[in-house]
Amino acid sequence: MINIAICDDDLITLHNTKELIEEYKIKEFNIKTYSSGEELLKSRNEFDIIFLDIDMGGINGIETAKRIRVYDKRVKIIYVTNYTDYTPMAFSVHAFGYLVKPLKLEDVHHQLNEALSYMKEDKEELVEFITNEGLVRINLNKIYYFEYQSRKVLMKTNDKIYTLKEKISDISSRMKIHGFEMPHKSFVVNLYNVKSIKGYDIFMMDESVIPLSQKKSTEFRNTLNIYLSNHIEKNIRG
């Protein structure tokens, strides 16, 4: 059973979205509806897919998604919006796709097709590191950053910090293909877990703040923009 949440403070859109999803006959869904971000967050239910309105009173869709991402990195969040220019929103939270109001049956079903396809293919992509504790295999998305500190390289993950037996420059070269970049000579960050950039500070999903060197600022920002644009295009093209 696929668990789906719909969150929209416009009750007409809320019910319309539910009806469009129920017209999808390929898969059986368990659908729950919420009329505010507060109500969705209070439920603490875990979903496979969330259709989330951006422009809600109270906690809007962007902030709601940020809070959901604290405890659920895998749920497919599909934003529902009145606007077609949504690229800047990707800085705030990793969205799977976007739908523009008024919703159309074919668009909703396309997003469901895409989400279900990715769910079938979702497998942990593991990378290996030699640490002081021996060989470890880590899911890429669980790595936030690497830091060179006191002649050691530390790997910060979602639940632990490892000490690695590698040079920070070698890690940068090896991890670049996986979407990691070096914003500072002492750090290599996972672009997947970047929340925002303000000035010369990079804010990560775990609330860590990584320095962005002035020398690398333009290159890093451009690389992040390309990464985010590619992520969005891949997920909404069709």
From TrEMBL:
Residues 127-226 form the HTH LytTR-type domain. The modification 4-aspartylphosphate is found at residue 53. Residues 3-116 form the Response regulatory domain. Keywords: Phosphoprotein. The keyword Phosphoprotein applies. May play the central regulatory role in sporulation. It may be an element of the effector pathway responsible for the activation of sporulation genes in response to nutritional stress. Spo0A may act in concert with spo0H (a sigma factor) to control the expression of some genes that are critical to the sporulation process. This is Stage 0 sporulation protein A homolog.
